[in-house]
């Protein structure tokens, strides 16, 4: 028996910082970049004396990182004890395992299913974790080989390529002691996607949820109670692993896919936070019986619009540090910060409304919508009004321009907030790049996703304009990534992705 589940990475295109506080909303797109968790038994059959065992074995492998860790899992408390590891263990994976096993025990009450759960646990757990290349930065390797910063070069990398660590010597060479290796990432929410994939695979494998096709929606994702349990357990595990209760939009996107998101009340995880995840059976019983008050309503980009991400290669940014600085600014200047947040909220709502209007127009007037968008994809925004020849086309162009204006307003207030808080939410180098991008033919939106900084830039283009933008970014020293929007959330896969050709975003990308 083998179960493979996957969960997507995310891009927050609106709602940065505001999404930390209810009832502010964020627009988050799930992506073609996915984490996969492969769960199978460690041994094929039960030993004769297994009924007397208090512990079972767990092995976690991360081939891309050349990591392997083995644990003993308490069958009573669902807690892990590390027995050996070639590299440092991953707290997100550990919490995902512990919370998932505890949740299965808490929710499965039928005797027959409980017996099946016990047998599965006694056979041990083998968990293999794989992340699409899009989550990691290969920029240094590409530059070291003298290759161009282009999508074609990224496309030439084998799926699930090995990841290079950036290691530094601590306290000089006298001690010979190394700092914990740091992996260069692209800011797609790897820890949330990884945690969610492990939770989903384990809960399905252990019989606590059913993520198979009969219970799936037309988008290819399971629905209802099963997904809600995956969400509750993944959020809990992720928050305990990172040591704080975040907004949770990244985990929500990994579970449910592209959406308009309003965070859950932090009090929901108060019991887990207070115990630091200990007393797991009690903590999980509390979590699964609580009413989660997050809101996730369906949202995705209108047709003929392409999400494009670029890696500037300017060092990366610590999101927790930036969030901390913004919160300190809020406390020191409550009047100004409240005014800025209010303006940001208005601009975010305006962008969302225009994108929803455009989606509706694409359904009500499909031919005219497609004609306008394809025409605008070949023109700079100043000439878009020239393509409209009737009232429906004029409405489409008006909404395109209004969405563009709203995104510029968002950028303005995000820059103001960054200056006031003393953090580079939209650094000058990004501003120049984004301004140039917005002036290109067929570009609707451009910005820094999420908390901003130096991690990445995004653009939303019309028709086939993404190729020209990618080329311009390459020439400017920005590495265009292969990742695109994919509105699916967590999914059950039919096989280990290494046994078939996995191409993230390749099927939906055209490279000239």
UniProtKB/TrEMBL annotation:
Disordered, as annotated region: 316-339
Keyword GTP-binding: no
GO molecular function, one term: ATP binding
Keyword entries, A-Z: ATP-binding, Kinase, Lipid biosynthesis, Lipid metabolism, Nucleotide-binding, Steroid biosynthesis, Steroid metabolism, Transferase
Enzyme type, top EC level: transferase
Pathway: Isoprenoid biosynthesis; isopentenyl diphosphate biosynthesis via mevalonate pathway; isopentenyl diphosphate from (R)-mevalonate: step 2/3
Enzyme Commission number(s) of this protein: 2.7.4.2
UniProt record similarity statement: Belongs to the GHMP kinase family. Mevalonate kinase subfamily.
Protein name: phosphomevalonate kinase
Species assigned in the record: Urochloa decumbens
């Amino acid at each position: 028996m083998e179960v493979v589940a996957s969960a997507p990475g995310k891009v927050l295109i609106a709602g940065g910082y505001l999404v930390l506080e209810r009832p502010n909303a964020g627009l988050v797109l799930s992506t073609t970049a996915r984490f996969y968790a492969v769960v199978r038994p460690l041994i094929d059959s039960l030993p004769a004396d297994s009924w007397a065992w208090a512990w079972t074995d767990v092995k976690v492998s991360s081939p891309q990182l050349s990591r392997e860790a083995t644990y003993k899992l308490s069958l009573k408390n669902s807690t892990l004890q590390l027995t050996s590891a070639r590299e440092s263990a991953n707290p997100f994976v550990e919490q995902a395992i512990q919370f998932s096993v505890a949740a299965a025990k808490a929710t499965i009450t039928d005797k027959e299913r409980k017996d099946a759960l016990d047998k599965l646990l006694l056979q041990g757990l083998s968990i293999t974790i794989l992340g699409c290349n899009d989550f990691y930065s290969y920029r240094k390797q590409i530059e070291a080989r003298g290759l161009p910063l282009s999508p074609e070069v990224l496309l030439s990398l084998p799926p699930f390529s090995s990841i290079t660590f950036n290691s530094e010597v601590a306290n000089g060479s006298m001690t010979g002691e190394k700092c914990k290796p740091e992996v260069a990432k692209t800011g797609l929410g790897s820890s949330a996607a990884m945690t969610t994939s492990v939770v989903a695979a384990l809960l399905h494998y252990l019989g606590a949820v059913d993520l198979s096709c009969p219970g799936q929606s037309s988008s290819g994702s399971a629905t209802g109670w099963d997904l809600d349990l995956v969400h509750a357990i993944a959020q809990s595990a992720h928050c305990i692993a990172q040591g704080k209760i975040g907004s949770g939009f990244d985990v929500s996107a990994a579970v449910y896919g592209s959406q308009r998101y309003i965070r859950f009340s932090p009090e929901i995880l108060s019991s887990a936070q207070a115990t630091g995840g200990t007393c797991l059976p009690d903590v999980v019983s509390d979590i699964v019986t609580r009413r989660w008050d997050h809101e996730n309503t369906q949202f995705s980009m209108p047709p003929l619009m392409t999400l494009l991400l670029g890696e500037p290669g300017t060092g990366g940014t610590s999101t927790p540090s930036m969030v901390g600085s913004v919160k300190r600014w809020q406390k020191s200047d409550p009047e100004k910060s409240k005014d800025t947040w209010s303006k940001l909220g208005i601009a975010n709502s305006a962008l969302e409304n225009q994108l929803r209007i455009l989606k509706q127009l694409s359904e009500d007037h499909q031919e005219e919508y497609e004609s306008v968008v394809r025409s605008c994809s070949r023109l700079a925004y100043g000439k878009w009004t020239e393509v409209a020849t009737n009232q429906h086309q004029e409405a489409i162009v008006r909404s395109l321009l209004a969405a563009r204006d709203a995104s510029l307003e968002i950028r303005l207030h995000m820059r103001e907030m960054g200056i006031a808080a003393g953090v580079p939410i939209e650094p000058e180098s990004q501003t120049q790049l984004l301004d140039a991008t917005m002036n290109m033919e067929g570009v609707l939106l451009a910005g820094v996703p999420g908390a901003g900084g130096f991690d990445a830039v995004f653009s939303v283009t019309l028709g086939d304009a993404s190729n020209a933008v990618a080329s311009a970014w390459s020439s400017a020293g920005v590495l265009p990534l292969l990742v695109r929007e994919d509105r699916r959330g967590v999914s059950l896969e039919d096989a280990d992705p290494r046994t078939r050709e996995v191409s993230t975003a390749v099927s939906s990308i055209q490279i000239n």
